[in-house]
Amino acid sequence: MKSWKFCVNSGFLGKRRDRFTEYQPARDLREKFFLASQIDGLHGIELKYPFDLQDVKLAKQLLEDNGLQCSAVNVDIKDATYFRYGALSARSAEARNKSISLIREGMDIAVELGTDLLSTCPLADGYDYPFQLDYIEAWNHYIETVSQIVSYRDDVKLALEYQPHEPHAKILLGNVGMILHLCAEVGAPNLGANLDIGHSFAALESPAESAALLASKKRLFYVHTNDNTGDGGDWDMISGSVHFWHWLEFLYTLDRIGYEGWLGGDIAPKHTGPAAAYDTNFRIVRRMVNFLDKAGTDKIAEILAKDSDIAETYNFLSEKLLPED
């Protein structure tokens, strides 16, 4: 299997809070890089704009000093000041133009930092109640806004991160089908997906299937690793801690489809320090990759290529994983 590069989302290295409490203190960019330097086997860092990129020159220096790459620039477009009623899909032209401006600025900074990838999770675009939104108007705005963004620079890929819920009961870009629909409507080759595994579970998907669908249309640009109980919440748990078999299938599928992008970390460090949480997350992913290598991906493919009893698959995998003697 491939040796994928691992990166961490800088947003999770600073203050983290929910509606109940705070889990981590605020940290400046130097402190975040110090934490990142403690994560074993880390290759890159995904930097948040505008929060972590007020001083691009400093960010470039910290990347060089720590031997890290900028995997992507992650643009935040959920600020209630501008986007209370949507960002990409907003009825307000002012809000839509603000989202376009922010993402275009992020694209320019991404190139300056040596990456061709920009990620954003459009959580402001959603609704809570029936009769709250004109869906036809909202989706027309969505398609037009994204079209304007991706036409700005064809040397930067826009990876949209879908999520079914939170902060709205329904997010417009809620599952893999919706992002494939958006990609088809926009038609630009530099528009694709950031596949967050926990979001895929929250959408009641199989991440392996979602990855295969996205890859079939050349839209799988980025991956966020984590896990989720699948009950609709976005818990950002350590990979494989809940859906171990699904995670094995996902990694097997990534290899089969020839994915060559980043494996980003999107773990909420509620009960331990960020460095420990991410170090453990990436170690588990690497161990799952090693297990699949030792089990033999060709043998797995051989079993899947025939209409066999599912018992054969699990007997094979479990024997390799948990031998009886």
Description:
This protein has 325 residues and is an alpha/beta fold. The chain has a single domain, classed as Alpha-Beta Barrel (TIM Barrel), CATH 3.20.20. The chain contains twelve helices and twelve strands. The strands form three sheets. It has an eight-stranded parallel barrel with strand order 1-4-5-6-8-10-11-12, surrounded by four helices. Strands 2-3 form a two-stranded antiparallel ribbon. Strands 7-9 form a two-stranded antiparallel ribbon. The relative contact order is 0.12.
What is the secondary structure topology, with strand pairs?
Layout (H helix, E strand, L loop, with lengths): L4 E5 L6 E2 L4 E3 L4 H8 L7 E6 L6 H10 L3 E7 L4 H4 L9 H20 L4 E4 L5 E2 L7 H16 L6 E5 L8 E2 L4 H11 L4 E6 H6 L4 H10 L3 E6 L18 H14 L4 E4 L8 H22 L1 H8 L5 H12 L4
Parallel strand pairs: 1-4, 1-12, 4-5, 5-6, 6-8, 8-10, 10-11, 11-12
Antiparallel strand pairs: 2-3, 7-9
- Known CATH architecture: Alpha-Beta Barrel
Strand count, sense and barrel status of the largest sheet are: 8 strands, parallel, barrel
At the first level of CATH, the class is: Alpha Beta
Query: What gap, in angstroms, lies between the N and C termini?
Result: 27 Å
Order of SSEs, N→C?
EEEHEHEHHEEHEEHEHHEHEHHH
How much strand? 15-25%
Label this structure with key terms.
single chain; 325 residues; alpha/beta; TIM Barrel; eight-stranded parallel barrel; two-stranded antiparallel ribbon; globular
